[in-house]
């Protein structure tokens, strides 16, 4: 798998019971126990038995998705899996930083919990909304946002699929204008705040303080930032992650850059719950194959390709 692009999902990929299929693997259980020791609560129980409502709480979602993704990668890695480039969508960048060796897993768990708490507090203070707009060019949506004010293009997910974020009324107005200009659909998102906009400035400040408590290492793997559209150096990562909260996720442009750059990967693997990023990749690069690991059968296939399935049970 040395020609592999590993992709790590962000908030929105959580589902109830998303770790149940991992529980037969001792290394996965150890990963959840390690995260629980950092958090002081049973994250494994949440990811196996928690309700979707609880899993959708920002301060719970973030460590839950991180831990699930890292657990899956550790299963693949113990069978010899390797990768050429690692990237993530927003929160998923923390998973990518762990597997590239830039950030210790325990530190990442602590930071993303603080990140979630800060984002939730900021959302409660500033409010805000987000909506996906389907079927328009990026430039058209950018023009709409500029004309409305207090709404920004927050996620460049794939050609014809973007997300706007900002004040509640502004997002509603932007959606209405998008419909008038021919958008196929405008879908309000079930979030509590205006993520990846200046509304998150307070959260970015709190996150920066949390990031000051951890060390970033040179690592052994290549991490590509989907907000910066580049490979940042280790000594830049603290600032990159702080800027991420108020900057748009440029996933579409980032994948174009990775797939058309030097030493481009030949295939992809979405590591963790769901298949959101694999779906986006079909729109970005139709001929680029991306597999997923979000259920027991898909994980078994990925493990077999990596060199064999780890033994289940005790």
Walkthrough of the structure:
By secondary structure, this protein is of the alpha/beta class. The protein folds into two domains: 4-124 and 198-306, Malonyl-Coenzyme A Acyl Carrier Protein, domain 2 (3-Layer(aba) Sandwich); 128-188, Alpha-Beta Plaits (2-Layer Sandwich). It has 13 helices and nine strands. It has helices at 26-39, 43-49, 52-55, 58-77, 92-99, 105-126, 138-148, 168-180, 201-211, 237-244, 251-259, 276-284, 296-306; strands at 4-8, 85-88, 129-134, 151-158, 161-166, 185-188, 223-224, 267-270, 290-292. A five-stranded parallel β-sheet has the order 7-2-1-8-9, with helices on both faces. It has a four-stranded antiparallel β-sheet with strand order 4-5-3-6. Helix 12 (276-284) links the parallel strand 8 and strand 9. Helix 1 (26-39) packs antiparallel against helix 4.
Summarize the helices and strands and which ones pair or pack:
Layout: E1 4-8, H1 26-39, H2 43-49, H3 52-55, H4 58-77, E2 85-88, H5 92-99, H6 105-126, E3 129-134, H7 138-148, E4 151-158, E5 161-166, H8 168-180, E6 185-188, H9 201-211, E7 223-224, H10 237-244, H11 251-259, E8 267-270, H12 276-284, E9 290-292, H13 296-306
Parallel strand pairs: 1-2, 1-8, 2-7, 8-9
Antiparallel strand pairs: 3-5, 3-6, 4-5
Helix pairs in contact: 1-4, 1-6, 2-4, 4-5, 4-6, 4-13, 6-9, 7-8, 9-10
């Amino acid at each position: 798998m040395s020609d592999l692009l590993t992709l790590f999902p962000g908030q929105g990929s959580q589902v109830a019971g998303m770790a149940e299929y991992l529980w037969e693997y001792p290394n996965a259980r150890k990963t959840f126990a390690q995260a629980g020791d950092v958090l002081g609560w049973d994250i494994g129980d949440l990811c196996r038995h928690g309700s979707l409502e609880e899993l959708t709480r920002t301060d719970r979602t973030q460590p839950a998705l991180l831990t699930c993704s890292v657990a899956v990668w550790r299963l693949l890695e113990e069978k010899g899996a390797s990768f050429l480039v690692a990237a993530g969508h927003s929160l998923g960048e923390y998973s990518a930083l762990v597997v590239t060796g830039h950030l210790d897993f325990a530190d990442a768990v602590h930071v993303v919990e603080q990140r979630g708490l800060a984002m939730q507090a900021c959302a409660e203070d500033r409010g805000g909304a987000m909506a996906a707009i389907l079927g328009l060019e990026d430039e058209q949506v950018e023009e709409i946002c500029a004309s409305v004010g207090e709404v920004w293009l927050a996620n460049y997910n794939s050609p014809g699929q973007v997300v706007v974020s900002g004040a509640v009324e502004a997002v509603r107005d932007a959606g209405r204008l998008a419909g008038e200009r021919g958008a196929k659909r405008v879908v309000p998102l079930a979030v509590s705040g205006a993520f990846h906009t200046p509304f998150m400035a307070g959260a970015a400040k709190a996150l920066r303080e949390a990031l000051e408590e951890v060390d970033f290492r040179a690592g052994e793997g290549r991490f590509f930032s989907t907000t910066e559209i580049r490979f940042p150096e280790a000594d830049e990562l603290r600032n990159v992650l702080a800027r991420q909260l108020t900057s748009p996720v440029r996933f579409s442009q980032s994948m174009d850059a990775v797939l058309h750059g030097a030493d481009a990967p030949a295939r992809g693997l979405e590591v963790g719950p769901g298949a959101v990023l694999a779906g986006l990749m079909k729109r970005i690069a139709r001929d680029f194959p991306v597999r997923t690991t979000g259920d027991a059968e898909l994980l078994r296939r990925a493990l077999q390709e990596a060199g064999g399935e780890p033994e289940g049970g005790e």
